[in-house]
Design a protein that fits this description.
The chain is built from seven helices and no strands. By secondary structure, the protein is an all-alpha fold. α2 crosses α3 and α6 crosses α7.
Length: about 130
Amino acid sequence: MTEDSGISEQLRQLISHLEINREKFSKEIGSTAQTIANIVHGANPGYLTILKIHQRYPEVNINWLLFNEGSMLNDNKSSLLDISLSNPKQENAGIRIEALESEIKLLQQIIKNKEEIINAKNELLESYKNSQKK
């Protein structure tokens, strides 16, 4: 299935914003050009790919990337290093909570996508069974 995963357009916009090509982007995040091409063409990204993008480009709003919510770039321009120097335990806990909430949202979306695939295959199977009975 090549249904748009929702992240395809955001990834195209991000790569364009960075003014690099897909191959350079894939190298920047430590992935393959084929993986990025697949996502751009509608494949669902794996959690590891999302994590790699987020680690390499922490300024990118993860909610925008995954759910097209908010703006492309985070409003807070401070880096993770700046945050960790201010109040390491409290600030890092906040970052971790935000990361876990984003991970939960991502996993819920993956589950929803898988459920839709299962339902479509069940419908196809039922249709096939019904055609065999005739």
